Amino acid sequence: MSKVEIYTKGYCPYCHRAKALLSQKGVEFKEIAIDADPSMREVMIDRANGGYTVPQIFINDTHIGGCDDLFALESKNKLDALLAQ
């Protein structure tokens, strides 16, 4: 199973949607709450090549993007293949 990491903030509806999709698929993920640990925000921005909005999602250390990008992969039937690696 893939290593999935998602940078979030507690009040972010897009974060909740992305986590719900991953949970619905039975995917375990590591959530990094940048509002609980602000020092992780800079780490997220560096890893996401300047992406500063949440969520920022990584599968096997590859930057996927945000919630819309995750759902786009799902609609193109490409998400399951990434998660199976």
Q: Mind explaining what this structure looks like?
A:
The chain is globular, with a radius of gyration of 12 Å. With 85 residues, the protein is an alpha+beta fold. The protein has one domain (4-84): 3-Layer(aba) Sandwich (Glutaredoxin). The termini are close together. Strands 2-1-3-4 form a four-stranded mixed β-sheet. Strand 3 and strand 4 form a beta hairpin. The protein contains four helices and four strands. Helices cover 42% and strands 20% of the residues. Helix 1 runs parallel beside helix 3.
Number of separate domains: 1
The succession of helices and strands, N to C, reads EHEHEEHH
- Note the beta-strand portion: 15-25%
Helix percent reads 40-55%
Quick tags:
4 helices; 4-stranded mixed beta sheet; Glutaredoxin; alpha+beta; 85 residues; single chain
Sum this structure up briefly:
This protein has 4 helices and 4 strands.
How do the helices and strands line up, and which of them pair or pack?
Blueprint: E1 4-8, H1 13-24, E2 30-33, H2 39-47, E3 56-59, E4 62-65, H3 67-75, H4 79-84
Helix pairs in contact: 1-3
